[in-house]
Amino acid sequence: MRLLIAGWHGQVARALIEAAPSLPHIKALAAGRAALDVRDPRSIERAFSDISPNVVINTAAYTAVDRAETDEEAAFALNRDGARLLACAAARRDIPVLHVSTHYVFDGTKKEPYVETDAPSPQTVFGRSKVEGERAVAEVNPRHVIVRTGWVFGPSGRNFATNILASANASEPLRVVADQHGNPTYAPHLAALLLDIAHRLAVERADDVWGTYHAAGSGVTSWHGLATEILARACVTNDTEPTVVPIASSDYPTAAPRPKNSTLDCARLYERFGLRLPPWQDGVAACIARHLES
């Protein structure tokens, strides 16, 4: 299978780039903006001509949630228009596209976990741009799988886990939001799942796989719970173990509102593909092990 990965710097893209070479049945090429600008049709055409992929995974996205509130044009150019151009190029070649999306398509007011059939109701520019990207992909390429995920973290780069570890030795207690809940998702776990799905899309021609799926770490916690688990696993000490103080969302204002409930129901993914991501605590353990090795 020849796989084109659109994107380079994000958590999921880096995990895909790391994992793909270990799979002998996959020949993958990841292309960042210098080699593949999804906003530029000519750049897309060159990439398809050079690689001749069987499947495309689109991780390219504008993900600066707060900055998007004042940078709407750039967010939509990448998350909607770029997604459309890439999916359209794949459709012209009858190539399936695996498109990564987000829990931000929902407003977070539902009490139960969100299922794929829940109506999107984004409350941020980022969320609206991702909803429009989903719709664009589905509109131009019938052979699409859209995977919504959330709370992605990894052992490197800038993300919640590395930020918590970097702050662990501060003299002041860590103040972390405790009234937002979701499924923490370890980027390498998600990457392995995406590669599995991509391989199936390349070798199976079943018509019942297309559509939208939720894929996130098993189990639910708050940001405070995730921070506490990270520090407990890391055994970080500075005379005493860092104190993690639970705070309300109102105590940590952001330009873009965060959903109170980001929990995703991933049952459909298991029913169709037999795939389920490990418990989020396993992801934390793997993340900390990698971090301590570096």
Automatic annotation (TrEMBL):
What InterPro entries does the record tag this protein with? dTDP_dehydrorham_reduct, NAD(P)-bd_dom_sf, RmlD-like-bd
This entry's Enzyme Commission designation comes to 1.1.1.133
Q: Which Pfam families match?
A: RmlD_sub_bind
EC top class, as a word: oxidoreductase
Q: Which reaction does it catalyse?
A: dTDP-beta-L-rhamnose + NADP(+) = dTDP-4-dehydro-beta-L-rhamnose + NADPH + H(+)
What does the record give as cofactor?
Mg(2+)
Q: What is written in the cofactor note of this entry? A: Binds 1 Mg(2+) ion per monomer.
Key words of the record: NADP, Oxidoreductase
Biological process (GO), any one:
dTDP-rhamnose biosynthetic process
An example of a GO molecular function for this protein is: dTDP-4-dehydrorhamnose reductase activity
Residue ranges of every copy of the RmlD-like substrate binding domain listed in the record: 1-290
- What pathway is this protein said to act in by its record? Carbohydrate biosynthesis; dTDP-L-rhamnose biosynthesis
Q: Which family does it belong to?
A: Belongs to the dTDP-4-dehydrorhamnose reductase family.
The UniProt entry, under PANTHER family, shows: DTDP-4-DEHYDRORHAMNOSE REDUCTASE, METHIONINE ADENOSYLTRANSFERASE 2 SUBUNIT BETA
Role, per record: Catalyzes the reduction of dTDP-6-deoxy-L-lyxo-4-hexulose to yield dTDP-L-rhamnose.
Q: What is this protein called in UniProt?
A: dTDP-4-dehydrorhamnose reductase
According to its UniProt entry, this protein's organism is Hyphomicrobium nitrativorans NL23
Task: Give the lineage.
Answer: Bacteria, Pseudomonadati, Pseudomonadota, Alphaproteobacteria, Hyphomicrobiales
